[in-house]
Structures are given as structure tokens and as C-alpha cells.
Specification:
- The protein has about 625 residues and is α/β, with parallel strands linked by helices.
- It folds into four domains: about 1-230, Alpha-Beta Barrel (TIM Barrel); about 230-325; about 330-535, Class I glutamine amidotransferase (GATase) domain (Rossmann fold), CATH 3.40.50.880; about 540-635, Immunoglobulin-like (Sandwich), CATH 2.60.40.
- It contains 18 helices and 28 strands.
- Helix 3 packs parallel to helix 6 and helix 4 packs across helix 6 (about 175-200).
């Protein structure tokens, strides 16, 4: 019984300093009569901007006033992060709004949504070239770097003085571009922080929900009593991001990605969203549903669609809200450098890696994205090949992690470029060579190749064949273990490992590991990430006879009940057919359990923990379907 109400700046402050609170008061008073809690969402974007606000827009490289195709005012993006006049006007209005609403019994809190801040490369838009933005960049960099000579050495530029410094145009060094993008990302975070400070100036206790775009310092916002929200789920490919919420302690709400219809993409869309969100445990069981008020309520109440489906699954959300996830031991490197240089998306915490997600999920290895501060906690740290650009501190952290006893699994070209050393010979293959591996010679072979375990197995374990894409020809390296080979007259190394300090490194001589979903005609689909996890000593709570099933395990915070989740994940419409498996749950405490399936309500009977671990439970799912097993411990 919570409603999010968009508070339009244009409606509530029609003239500068002149406020009309009648619409807000009427809504809050009505909500009180219905015992509905209200989150006020101050809206200062696009159509909610008053006409009296000055048109201080951001610009693209050509000087045009345009912007991201959404959230525009008079055809452009207002430069709130860098224009002091605009920023002051927004904060003044938000402060007045919070002061007026504070104390109303229907008010639960506030929600700030600054969606899609900054560049939109997928729409051909790169902003930040307004004069106010460039001037702010000069001030920040002068304070950080000191002299223009230091800036030129760092960026590989020839600016005569700070007044000549411009935004990056054309081909520039990675570090210049990175400093620019970091500056702009921090500016968005600062706007969001100012909004929180403004509300906290008059309301110190109510919840503030922050849309996650642009938040670069989650701990600060948590300390101010904030939680977080995202723009919605429609499949489980956000699994690693939701799991990171558990690692960081940052609860994150989701919403229907197809506003008003939880079945727009596929019938089990909301169930797939639940599966992904619960990678973070009950912390994440908060969900917003859009309601199209123009439609008849009876139509929205269809139990298989829209509000009806949402309401039908509310008891499931409520039950699972009391759960906690397992302690994650496998982390996927999440580094801001790659997010900014590869994607150029402001404030996104991680680069979504569908294939890395599938490789881990189809190996039934619980995993999450992790920022550098959390890397030392991992038993297994995975660096995808897409993380080609790393800064020197990140490379140093990875080396220190292994030296201290960690286990690292990396593609050969992960961390290939050190952005600070772009002109130095050490910049190429930077991470690989730090671990003592020679850089591969020759070009990358753009093909899919079958690989097989080495003579002693894969990390000392029996294993099947698997496939790698875009590979290098590397002869077995003296002083390393050849864990897997590309078979042939002269076998070439597919995976090599070595000790380094107190830890170990395994290098996959390819850009991509083909997920088990993409087996060849001979069934080469062994999930190598599971073998890597065992090698690193990771606890694996579930196994599947069929690698296409994704799994998760939760435990109740209030009693001895456990939950086993299973999902038949889909990527690019595969798999397209129903699949069968047997799932074995190996980490349940010793004892007997009454087992049921939550979504269907089916009672499956009584099983011992040993039976669930050794014999397991059979399961059949259609693509994208979800099953949730409830394991209720029998009382002694």
C-alpha cells in the first residue's frame, strides 16, 4: 500500500518563488483516508520544468543543443550539474517541497530519479561541451593536478595554460578521456548528494530512494538513510548486479521494465525478475508496478497480466523478503574504468556481461560483481576479456590480491591496456605480463575452437571438452601448468596456470569462453567455471545434471527454512525447448525437510539433507520459467 507520486516542478512552482501546493495537499490528504503511504518523486526533468527556468543547456561536440532523446526541456538537456543558477533553483524548490510536506501522516519519503545522466552513445549523443561544463573541468583538474605541465604529461597534450584546456575532442589519450568522464560522473553524483542534503535539512528521518544511475558513492547515501532503485528487469541477465547488492549492503528496488504489463516480454517475466533480484536475498524484494489509470481496473486485475499478476505474486515477495543469500565467494571484476571507456555511460556501476553471467550461472557458481575495495574477500576473482582497459591502481590491486593468496581467472587480454601508460611499451598486455606470462605473438584467431583438458585434467579434476572463441596460438609455457589444450599434431595451450606469491593465476588464451548453452554437435559444453571454483575452494551449494539451469540458495533470517531457486535462463531465444534436470542441494544442514514448490503450491514430500544432496529433485521447466523449492526443517 505504497504509491509513488510525481511532484511536477512546473505545477508546484509556476513562477519563481511562488508555490501552489493544492494538488500535492489534495493527494496526500486522500492517501491518508485510504491508509496509503506516499513517496514523493520531485520531477524537474523535461515536461516538468517550469517555463521560467533559463535555458542553460548542455551541448554536444558540435555545439548543438540536443541531448538524450528522453527527458528534454524545449529540445535540450538542462545543465543542472554545472550551471549554478539552474542547480540553485532546483535545490530551492526541493527544499520548499520537503518543508511543506514534512509532518504529513501520509508521507513515507522521497524518490529521486535522474535517469540516463550524461552521454547516450547508443543514441549518438555525447554531451558535456557547454561552456559551464568545460570551465568546471578546468577548475577541478587544476586543483587535482596542480600545474598545466603536470596535466600535459598525464594526458599527452600541449595546452599552453589552464584557460586553453578543452573537453576531449577527436582522438585523445585514454587517461585524458577517463579523467573527463570521471569528472562528469562525479558531478552527477554531487547533484544527487545535494538533493539528499536539501531534504535532510528539513526532514531527517524519512526514507529517500535514489535511482541508481549516477550514484558513484553508495556508502555515503546509505549513511544518509537512502535505499536504491533501478529501471526495471525483464530477464535474469542482471543477476550479477543484483548479487552485488548483497555484497555491498545496498538494497535495490526494481520495477516492470514494460510499464503496466508484467507479461509484455514473456509470460514469466515477473518470475524471472524475482529470480534475478533474489541473488541479493530478501534485501532486494521491493518492486514497483506501473498502473495505467486510463485502463479499466477490472482489466488490470487479470491474474496472468499487469497488476493482477503482480498482486498474485505478492505473497511470494513477502515470504522471501525474510531471506538472506549465501556468502558470495566468487567475484567478477567490476571496474569504473571499463564502464566509462568502453560504454561511456555515466554512473552505471558495472558493465553487464551476458556471456560471463551465463558461464557462471550455467556452472551453478554463485557470483557477483565487485568493486576494487571488495576484491580481497574473494576466493575466486574472474576478470573477463571485456575488461581490457584498467588503470594502474586496479592492476596493482589485482596483483596484490594474488600475491596475498587469491585465485585469479583471467582472459589473456583482460587488463591489456594500462590507461596511464598508453605511450609506454609496458602499456600493452599490462596485467598478463605482471604475472610473468609472455605476451602472445601473432594475431588473434577469430574463430571458435574446441579445447580439451590437459594430461592431468582441468585444475587436477576430470573434465569434458569446451569451446573458446577468438584465440591465440600459445605453445605450452615452461614453468606453468597447461590445464587445457587445443588438440592437434602439436597441442597448443588453451589454459595455463601458475603460482604467484601465495596465490594462483589461470590464463584462458581466448577473448571469450563459449557458455555451455552453445555446445557443438559433439556436446563440447563443459562448464569450466565450476572446475575453476572448485580449484579455488569455493563452496558450491547446488549442482545440475543439465548445465542450462541457473540456481540460487537462500536461508530464512527468522527460522530454519531454506529456499532453492532454479531458472531456465534464455539468451537470444536459446534454449527454445523445455529442459529437464536433477538438482542436488548440497549445503543444507543435516536433518529432515518438508519440501514444496512455492509458485505452484505443490507438496513434494519429506527428504533428508543427504537425499537432497545425493539423489536430488527432478525438475522440468520451459524457457524463462522459475521454480522455488521451500525446505522446511522438521522439528526434532
Amino acid at each position: 500500500r505504497e504509491v509513488e507520486w510525481p511532484a511536477s516542478w512546473r505545477s508546484l512552482e509556476p513562477l519563481p518563488g511562488v508555490y501552489d501546493w493544492r494538488l500535492l495537499d489534495r493527494f496526500l490528504d486522500y492517501a491518508k483516508t485510504k491508509s496509503i503511504a506516499v513517496l514523493i518523486r520531485p520531477e524537474f526533468r523535461s515536461g516538468d520544468t517550469p517555463y521560467w527556468v533559463p535555458g542553460h543547456f548542455d551541448r554536444n561536440e558540435a555545439g548543438f543543443v540536443q541531448g538524450h532523446p528522453g527527458y528534454l526541456f524545449q529540445g535540450g538537456r538542462l545543465n543542472i550539474p554545472h550551471d549554478p543558477t539552474l542547480r540553485a533553483a532546483v535545490m530551492r524548490w526541493v527544499g520548499a517541497l520537503a518543508a511543506h510536506a514534512n509532518g504529513h501522516p501520509a508521507l513515507q519519503g522521497y524518490m529521486f530519479c535522474y535517469e540516463h545522466p550524461g552521454d547516450a552513445p547508443y543514441a549518438g549523443w555525447r554531451e558535456g561541451f557547454a561552456g559551464e561544463t568545460v570551465a568546471a573541468f578546468r577548475r577541478v583538474q587544476a586543483a587535482t593536478l596542480g600545474t598545466i605541465a603536470a596535466a600535459n604529461r598525464r594526458w599527452g597534450t600541449r595546452f599552453a595554460d589552464w584557460a586553453a584546456v578543452d573537453a576531449p575532442r577527436g582522438k585523445v589519450s585514454d587517461i585524458f578521456l577517463l579523467d573527463w568522464l570521471r569528472f562528469r560522473t562525479r558531478a552527477v553524483n554531487d547533484v544527487l548528494a545535494d538533493l539528499v542534503r536539501t531534504v535532510r535539512g528539513v526532514d531527517t528521518r524519512r526514507l529517500i530512494v535514489m535511482y541508481r544511475d549516477g550514484v558513484t558513492d553508495p556508502p555515503w547515501f546509505l549513511a544518509q538513510g537512502c535505499s536504491f532503485a533501478n529501471g526495471g528487469s525483464h530477464d535474469a541477465m542482471g543477476l550479477l548486479e543484483y548479487a552485488a547488492c548483497a555484497l555491498e549492503g545496498t538494497p535495490e528496488r526494481t520495477e516492470d521494465h514494460s510499464p503496466g504489463d508484467w507479461t509484455s516480454y514473456f509470460p514469466s517475466q515477473i518470475e524471472a525478475s524475482i529470480f534475478a533480484m533474489l541473488a541479493g536475498g530478501g534485501l532486494n524484494t521491493d518492486c514497483k508496478a506501473f498502473i495505467h489509470t486510463a485502463k479499466r481496473f477490472a482489466d488490470l486485475a487479470d491474474p496472468e497480466r499487469s497488476l493482477g499478476r503482480y498482486r498474485r505474486l505478492m505473497p511470494v515477495w513477502s515470504e522471501l523478503r525474510q531471506t538472506k543469500p549465501i556468502t558470495y565467494q566468487t567475484f567478477v571484476v567490476g571496474d569504473e574504468t571499463t564502464v566509462l571507456l568502453r560504454e561511456r555511460i555515466m554512473g552505471a556501476p558495472f558493465v553487464r556481461e551476458p556471456w560471463e553471467t551465463m558461464n557462471l550461472a550455467q556452472a551453478q557458481v554463485p557470483a557477483c560483481y565487485a568493486r576494487p575495495a571488495d576484491w580481497p574477500k574473494a576466493k575466486l576473482l574472474v576478470v573477463p576479456g571485456t575488461q581490457q582497459h584498467l588503470d594502474r591502481p586496479a592492476i596493482d590491486r589485482l596483483v596484490a590480491y594474488v600475491e596475498s593468496g587469491g585465485t585469479l581467472l583471467m582472459r589473456a587480454d583482460a587488463g591489456r591496456h594500462c590507461v596511464e601508460d598508453a605511450s609506454a611499451a609496458s602499456a600493452d598486455w599490462a596485467l598478463l605480463t605482471r604475472f610473468g606470462f609472455p605476451a602472445p605473438t601473432g594475431t588473434c584467431r577469430e574463430a571458435i575452437r574446441r579445447a580439451a583438458p590437459g594430461a592431468a585434467g582441468l585444475w587436477g579434476q576430470p573434465a569434458g571438452s569446451f569451446r573458446l572463441r577468438d584465440t591465440w596460438d600459445v605453445t605450452p609455457i615452461p614453468g606453468t601448468i597447461t590445464e587445457a589444450v587445443f588438440p592437434g599434431e602439436q597441442p597448443l595451450a588453451a589454459i595455463s596456470s601458475t603460482t604467484f606469491g601465495k596465490g594462483r593465476v589461470a590464463v584462458i588464451w581466448a577473448q571469450t569462453v563459449m557458455p555451455p548453452l552453445y555446445a557443438d554437435a559433439d556436446g563440447a559444453n563443459f562448464p569450466i567455471h565450476r572446475a575453476a571454483a572448485r580449484w579455488a575452494g569455493v563452496d558450491l551449494p547446488c549442482s545440475s545434471d543439465n548445465p542450462l539451469f541457473w540456481t540460487n540458495v537462500l536461508a530464512s533470517r527468522t527460522d530454519g527454512t531454506h529456499y532453492g531457486l532454479a531458472h531456465l535462463g534464455v539468451w537470444q531465444n536459446e534454449p527454445s525447448q523445455r529442459q529437464q534436470t536433477t538438482l542436488r542441494w548440497s549445503t543444507l544442514p543435516v536433518g529432515s525437510y518438508q519440501v514444496s514448490e512455492v509458485l505452484s503450491g505443490r507438496k513434494l514430500g519429506s527428504f533428508t539433507a543427504a537425499q537432497l544432496a545425493e539423489t536430488g529433485l527432478p525438475l522440468e521447466l520451459a524457457p524463462r520459467e522459475v521454480a522455488i523449492f521451500r525446505f522446511v526443517a522438521a522439528k526434532p
